[in-house]
Amino acid sequence: MTATLDFVAFIGRAVLAALRVVGEVSLFAIEALSHLLRPPFFWRQFTRHFVEVAYFSLPVVALTALFTGMVLALQSYVGFARFNAESAIASVVVLSVTRELGPVLAGLMVAGRIGAAMAAEIGTMRVTDQVDALTTLSTDPMKYLVAPRLVAATLAMPLLVVVADVLGVMGGYLIGTLKLGFVAETYIVNSWSVLEPMDVISGLVKAAVFGFVIALMGCWCGYASKGGAQGVGQATTRAVVSASILILALDYALTAAFFS
Amino acid sequence: MSAPDRGGHGPERESAAQPAPPKIRLRGLRKAFGSKQVLDGVDLDVRARHSMVILGGSGSGKSVTIKCILGLITPDEGLVEVDGQDVSKLSRRDRAAIMDRTGMLFQNGALFDSLPVWENVTFKLLAQKRVTRTAARDVAAEALAQVGLAASVGDLSPSELSGGMQKRVALARAIAAKPDIVFFDEPTTGLDPIMGAVIDGLIVDVVERLGATAFSITHDMASARRIGDDAAMIHKGRIVWNGAADSLGHTGNAMVDQFANGEREGPIQMELRK
Ligand SMILES: Nc1ncnc2c1ncn2[C@@H]1O[C@H](COP(=O)(O)OP(=O)(O)O)[C@@H](O)[C@H]1O
Ligand SMILES: [Mg+2]
């Protein structure tokens, strides 16, 4: 009997703790966004983070997308050959990449790069009093640190995903034509004819949401960190893990919203 | 706005000679972190245009006191008044207005390592749009010269500086916007004695030239006597003594004299084991 009660109490506490975190993160996001309505906006900070996300993430996102497209073509060929449906490969690649794999894989890679970097930088600033120093220097830390990062990541991620889409499809095309012996023109026509604007648009909307979530978790975990280098390390881990899980969960929710 | 009268509660000095209200007034300030009661009823007045020095052992809550005054930490209980206004009741805008007139040197410098030194020094002036970015370099050079640093230091990153140089840059940043109230958290710790004396001179100069109110924390008695008009000692979360800075060392208060003269035996027992 007491064991059952203990268990219920444990679940209850866990749920309450989770709700509290959701509430805290939401308030944090709302406060950061409210700063966008009130000048000044720190363009210099925005530019720095936009370049960091959009430009310096290009190599890793490009490679991920390219190899994913290649693997996808190879795997679906193995699978579809049994049903004599090789021609379906072009459409499988283009639809998977634009709708799902482009945004999700780019999101996960950027979460590892940018989410971690944001949490580490803001966390270090927090534990070395630099966040407090901003306040004493007549600058709101939410406005200076958080708002530009949120905007930068939200705008940069769709650009990255456009690149990921192109390279993912190209990876499939390379394998399809060079290894599986498809005719280049047929492959391109097959890809193009099946693609609808909505496939790409939904992917880009996902990308923007993922970018926001990555920056939000990076900033929040960094902001809340305490206790020196170890605390900053924990904040970094937490930022990457929470952003990654949120990306996968939101991907499901957004897919359900777009295609049902 | 009148503060609750807690007559005789705090270590107030004779007020006959100073009709002006205190610049900063703390009453019954309490703050705990978890189960640890760091501030346990701090009462203190800081006279306008004077220099107050706070003494106390490591971990006695000196930095926390400053952060409570600045609103960086919210006290659990108690009153913080700046210019007679209860800061907990101020609007965001009024708080920002006080911050605009305040300078703070953090204990570990807290320089922004993503920005070059010159931008650190002029950060507040740039934030308040009191200088343009082009003019800021010259302003920074001037501020750096005041703390004995060459203008070329302005182009370095804070991580390229020695600890003492970082402290001086942080000091330059704290006073660059010509504050009205300025806090120095251990301004000379980590500096050699000569540079320490130079920095002390600067602090005295800031208070006199700007007509500012200074609130400093220090462990160094020579420094405390040089920069302080008034001094107070904090121990176990309370102000245990409050008097003239030149009397340090022969105050007649056993605790303060023990601390000032660095004696092992006395009323203050170092809690080496807990
Ligand atoms: N943000 C914080 N969270 C938890 N404990 C803190 C925090 N800030 C200070 N403390 C604790 O409060 C005590 C006093 O700290 P502080 O005011 O920095 O000491 P000092 O008098 O040396 O400046 C220390 O024991 C410190 O561990
Ligand atoms: Mg301290």
Q: Level of helix content of chain A?
A: over 70%
Could you say which structural class the secondary elements and strand pairing of chain B correspond to?
A: alpha/beta
The CATH class label of the largest domain in chain B is Alpha Beta
How far apart the termini of chain B lie comes to: 43 Å
- What is the ordering of alpha helices and beta strands of chain B? EEEHEEHEHHHHEHEHEEH
How would you describe the shape of chain A? globular
Question: How would you characterize this protein structure?
Answer:
The complex is a heterodimer of chains A (260) and B (274). By secondary structure, chain A is mainly α. Chain A has 9 helices and no strands. Chain B has 2 domains: 166 residues, Rossmann fold; 68 residues. Helix content of chain B is 32%, strand content 22%. Chain B contains 9 helices and 10 strands. The termini of chain B are far apart. At the A-B interface, helix 5 of A face helix 2, strand 6 and helix 4 of B. The structure holds adenosine-5'-diphosphate (ADP) and magnesium ion. The site of adenosine-5'-diphosphate has 10 residues of chain B, from helix 1.
Short description:
The complex is a heterodimer of chains A (260) and B (274). Chain A has nine helices and no strands.
